[in-house]
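anyone seen this seq b4? input:
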Amino acid sequence: MRAYMLGAGASFPIYPLGGGLFDTIDETLISDSLSDILYASKKGAHAVRAAESKYDSFKADIGDYRHVRKTLLWAMEAFFLGGNDDDFKTFRSTDANDLRNWSDLRRFGALLKPGDVVITFNYDSTVERVLHDLGKWAPSDG
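predicted toks r here
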């Protein structure tokens, strides 16, 4: 038996998974900014006021960041939904360019033997689609 791990997620928990990335960035940015206030408290009231002012300014700036973040999340969702629909259409294509796009995954699937295990963290279903087409995987038995 051979095991293969494909896709994202291998660096977790060192780095957050995609779904938690923006929340982790938010927490880190805010936490770092609030830590500055704590450290400033050891330097006196003037340093605290300066750190608080910096935090307030940062807090205002982060509103723009959160708007951009929501837009990016929407764009990523639209990209993957559209991409999944497009790659489903090219999967059965007879166009040579479309077939080349799938050649590496098809070659990988052809190498798999009974008992091999594939673990994938991809955001798409391309690997599953190829393995299903080759009769090496089914949603009913995993």
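The two ends are 16 Å apart (CA to CA). The chain has four helices and two strands. kinda curious what u guys think
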